[in-house]
Model the fold of this input.
Amino acid sequence: MRDNRISEAVISRLPKYYRYLSELEAKGTQRVSSSKMSADMGLNASQIRRDLNCFGGFGQQGYGYQVNNLKNEIKKILGIGKKYTAVVVGAGNIGQALYKYTNFAEEGYNLAAIFDADQSVVDKEIDGITVRPIEELADFVINNEVNLGVITAPKRHAQRIADELVLLGVKGIWNFAPVDVVARKGVCVENVHLSDSLFVLSYRMRTNGED
Amino acid sequence: MRDNRISEAVISRLPKYYRYLSELEAKGTQRVSSSKMSADMGLNASQIRRDLNCFGGFGQQGYGYQVNNLKNEIKKILGIGKKYTAVVVGAGNIGQALYKYTNFAEEGYNLAAIFDADQSVVDKEIDGITVRPIEELADFVINNEVNLGVITAPKRHAQRIADELVLLGVKGIWNFAPVDVVARKGVCVENVHLSDSLFVLSYRMRTNGED
DNA sequence: CCAATTTTGTTACTCATTGCAAATACCTCC
DNA sequence: GGAGGTATTTGCAATGAGTAACAAAATTGG
Done:
């Protein structure tokens, strides 16, 4: 709480800390120092302390950080545990996979329904899930107070779907279509481009260290 | 080719350029300037020129960049189009989704087979694909000259699978398990943490701009 | 064919981020 | 309860990334 401007770089490391601390907690570890975190995670110890200090003095000199406490603080910072209600739009491969993936629910992200425009997959129970027709999207979002939209539709529809979701009042868009979806101020967008990461991997494989 | 040290930041923007240029090419656009790219992609024009110039002078003063040519150059830089043979290890939701996703094949990434350790899903044709038993992984990788491993197994198995794949000679690991898989020097690893991006989105939704 | 315009390649500058080291605070053990 | 050790703070230096400004070069139009 000491600096109002938290950099993107810091934010993007928080989930990693969260993951690491969850592991420690599961192992029953009570306390951890920045130097141990550094050794385990491959980040500079100084950077870790600095990052955490952006949000408050969680550590104690001469002792380190209390694992459970720190984990919960980061959880609060990231907004994990707040109840989110989401819809998945696009019942293709990725859409179905995300919808069926249960780990998100455990963290409080409830993927409440999945929609598709293709009549051939709608209203049939595929592999245990029922795909709803896109025409019901608006009603569902409003009646269930959906605040998060997951877009897994083909790229040509992505922006239009995003626009509709925003109009319906969602506060966040998690987009998997290979375009950069945009939204008006006040709505948060996270574009996930799987192939981008594959291309970066491919670049590294080609150049392998030196260039 | 003017600077041997290309920063991560530059590399991570290349796929975005590639995507954008592919769109332009599909529309039949012949030439593009850095200022147009800037306007369309929301990046600083100066940065775009600088990024591209890391790899050579692709542009022409007074003219701009030739779309088709630049796209192909970036394609080469990223190593897209080279033939990769990959295996997917873990036939859960994400594994199946990636395996069935055909766009990768179009870019030269051939996902040749999918494996799982769970006997109940093995050797049965599920939704058009056949899952192979994990015991056949080694033979398959060697016989088919697999150079890329995609890990979509539970996190407790991820590192062990990675180690085996590396031992079998793959040169790249594309990991979707929620752990940071590591590999010996010479093998490239790209860890994709979907929930990380969800958490970052969740943070932004909570703080929404100001903090 | 020449001048005006466009647009890149490149250098210089600013700002953010990372890394380091001294200082401070707290725990632990005797 | 005090001394020593441990680990965070905090301020500062160095590195790196992003932006702006400019000069060189090529195109375009008359």
